Amino acid sequence: MTFDLYVPKISELHVADRPRERLIRQGAESLSNQELIAILLRTGTRQESVLQLANRVLAFFDKIQDLQHATLEEITSVKGIGEAKAVQLLAAVELGRRLSRKQSTERYVIRSPEDAAAYLMPDMASLQQENFVVLFLNVKNEVLHSSTIFIGSLNSSIVHPREVFREAVKRSAAAIIFGHIGMKNQWRNYNLLYPQCYINFAFFLMAKLSLKVVMSLLVLSTAGSHLVFTNNKVV
User: Fold this and answer.
1) Confidence of residue 99 (pLDDT cuts 50, 70, 90)
2) End-to-end Cα separation, the chain, in angstroms
3) In this structure, are residues 165 and 214 in contact, taking their beta carbons and an 8 Å threshold?
4) Do strands 156-159 and 192-193 pair parallel, antiparallel, or not at all (unpaired)?
5) Fold held by 113-234
6) Which residues 6+ apart lie within 8 Å of 120 measured at CB?
7) Residue 213: what pLDDT?
8) Cα angle: 173, vertex 174, 180; to 5 degrees
9) Domain ranges of the chain
10) Edge-to-edge strands of the sheet including 131-137?
11) Cα(203)–Cα(210) distance, integer angstroms
C-alpha cells in the first residue's frame, strides 16, 4: 500500500504561511525548494494549486541540481507547465548560474587545481557525459576564456589538438588548463572529488611557444592525430 503526500492548496494555508508572505517575513533562505518554485510559477492550473504543480516539477527531476541543465522541452513535458512558466524557470536558473560565477570587474585568477575546479563546477556539476574543457589564461594566470572543446560519450572523450591550439592562438593565451570532466563512478585515482564528478587537470604553458611553432602544431594535428580520454587513461 502506498500513500501520496498531501500538498495543500494556497487557499488552504493561513496567509502568513503562504510562500510569498513567508519570503517577505523570513527571507528566501527559509523557503523550501517547492515554495521557491511555486513563487516562480506564480499560478497553478484549474486542477492543481501552484504548490502542487511545483511539487510535480520537483518530482520530475531526480534532484534540484538537474534543473540547471534542463531544456525548454523537458520542462514543458511536465503536465501543467507551458512555455511561459518554463521560460520563467529557465531565466531564474540562468540568473543563479551567473551569480554563482561571482563575476566581478577583475578576472578570475587560477593559482591551483582547486581554483580551476571552483571556476568550472557551477556549469559542470550535473553533467551526464564526459567533457573536455579548456581554460585560456594570460601571463598573470587570469582566465581569458573557457571553452568546451569536446563532449564525449558516457565514458570517453576524443580531443583533436588542432581545436585546442586554434582557440589558444585566437585568444592570445599564455597558458592553458585542460579540464577533463568525467562521471564519478568511472574514475579512480584523480585528486579532485566533487559530488557528481571527478576532475583531472593538466596545465600547459604556452609562453615559450612562438606563434610559428603553434601554427606548425596546428598543421601537424590536421592529419588526424587525437587524444582519447577513456576510463582514466589517455589512449
Assistant:
1) confident
2) 52
3) yes
4) unpaired
5) Cytidine Deaminase; domain 2 (3.40.140)
6) 133, 135, 146, 179, 181, 199
7) 40
8) 70
9) 10-100, 113-234
10) 143-151, 131-137, 175-183, 197-205, 192-193
11) 18
Q: What is the DSSP letter of 77?
A: T
Please give the Cα distance from 26 to 30 (Å, whole number): 6
Cα→Cα distances 12→51, 71, 74, 136, Å: 11, 33, 30, 54
- CATH assignment, 10-100: 1.10.150
d(CA 46, CA 12): 16
* The three three-digit cell numbers of residue 117, written as one number: 575546479
Nearest CA to 89 out of 119, 54, 55 is that of 54
CA distance 125 to 135: 17
Report which secondary-structure segment, H or E, holds 56. helix 50-60
Does 38 have pLDDT greater than 50?
yes
For 157, counting Cβ atoms within 10 Å of its Cβ (0-12 exposed, 13-18 middle, 19+ buried), the class is: buried
Across the chain, how many H-helices and E-strands are there?
8, 8
> How many alpha carbons fall within 13 Å on the CB side of residue 193?
7
Per-residue pLDDT tens digits for 120-173: 777 766 666 777 788 888 888 898 888 887 776 655 556 677 777 888 888 888
At residue 71, does pLDDT exceed 50? yes
